[in-house]
Design goal:
Elements: H1 17-42, H2 57-64, E1 72-74, H3 80-85, H4 90-97, H5 131-145, E2 151-156, H6 163-174, E3 179-185, E4 188-189, E5 192-193, H7 207-210, E6 214-218, H8 222-237, E7 243-248, H9 268-274, H10 277-287, H11 292-315
Parallel strand pairs: 1-2, 2-3, 3-7, 6-7
Antiparallel strand pairs: 4-5
Helix pairs in contact: 1-2, 1-10, 1-11, 2-8, 4-11, 5-6
């Protein structure tokens, strides 16, 4: 797997200690949410296919402050982190995954189809790469409605081989649309290494063929993500068109809950855990002289928050099947 040159698009200083601590707290909130979801799924409280973003949190954390009210975010079926980054309350997300009436979509969407337009999060999609053309459409609509919208679309490395993603990038480039394409490259296209599927695993290089900027960055560092995605958003807002950002990261769990992960290579996870977001941010704070009690407090507060949110969702009424056709027909 190609994991070299992770920050070829530039590096960031890491920001102030307060910013680094704020990033760690948000990473832990997402991590604690996902780990609680796994617990609920294994206990049978949550059902259906669920894909966790454990290890990939820094990309959503770094992007969170860049998205304005008029913008639109489109994620993959591994999108819980992105919904949280857009401001969706954990209890409403738990409720959705648990089929509760209090879920963000009333229990209709589940893990892979939840959406929250009021939070600029226009949802996940179980069709690999399908968010890219939808994002191009949202950006095009912004040209006509005067909103100044920038569309952010997130997909995995495997989606880079989907025809719809190619078409979306070509369309966005040809029409100079304000789209930020973010490839969360965790090096695994479901169960297959991306390097075995393409001749050149440096996926950001494909941007040149569309006539748009492309770069590879360290997706485990929110400061780098904030800086480089911020530049891409600025280009889009100033009329410069789309950008492709390949954010290198790693998922620390299986493709889905229950995945035996027999495809993993010896030592791969150990190496990934040495450079995952919690470690990166914790080490940065320690180097700055921040005490272990403060660092540990970020994890403790996140886990307490998610326990409360999950309990609230579990106590809510189940979705009423009688309402299944609501919102489907006029």
């Amino acid at each position: 797997m190609d994991t070299g040159g992770m920050a070829t698009g530039g590096t960031a200083t890491g920001g102030t200690d307060d910013q680094v601590l704020a990033d760690l707290r948000e990473v832990w909130r997402m991590r604690a949410f996902e780990e609680k979801v796994r617990e609920l799924r294994l206990a049978g409280d949550a059902v259906g296919s669920i894909h966790l973003g454990i290890g990939q949190e820094a990309i959503a954390v770094g992007a969170a402050g860049l998205v304005r009210d008029e913008d639109a975010v489109f994620a993959t079926y591994r999108g819980h982190n992105w919904a949280m980054a857009c401001g969706v309350a954990p209890a409403a997300l738990f409720g959705e995954l648990l089929g509760r009436a209090t879920g963000i979509n009333g229990g209709r969407g589940g893990s892979a189809h939840l959406t929250a337009p009021a939070h600029r999060f226009f949802g996940e999609n179980s069709i690999v790469g399908a968010g890219a053309p939808i994002a191009a459409g949202a950006a095009l609509a912004g040209r006509f409605d005067g909103s100044g919208r920038v569309a952010l679309t997130v997909f995995g490395d495997g989606a880079m081989n989907q025809g719809a993603v190619h078409e979306a990038m070509n369309f966005a480039a040809a029409l100079n649309l304000p789209v930020v394409f973010v490839c969360e490259n965790n090096s695994w296209s479901e169960l297959t290494p991306i390097e075995e599927m393409v001749r050149d695993p440096r996926l950001h290089r494909r941007a040149a063929a569309y006539g748009m900027p492309g770069e590879r960055i360290d997706g485990n560092d929110p400061a780098v993500v904030r800086e480089r995605l911020g530049a891409a958003f600025a280009v889009a807002r100033e009329g410069g068109g789309p950008t492709l950002v390949e954010a290198m990261t790693a998922r620390l769990v299986g493709h889905y809950i229950g995945d035996a992960e027999q495809y993993r290579r010896p030592g791969e996870l150990d190496e990934a855990r040495r450079r995952e977001p919690v470690v990166v941010l914790g080490d940065r704070l320690r180097a700055a002289g921040v005490g272990e009690d403060v660092i540990d407090g970020a994890e403790r507060a996140a886990r307490e928050e998610m326990e409360r949110a999950a309990a609230e969702a579990l106590a809510a009424p189940l979705a009423d099947p009688a309402n299944v056709k609501e919102h489907l027909y006029v």
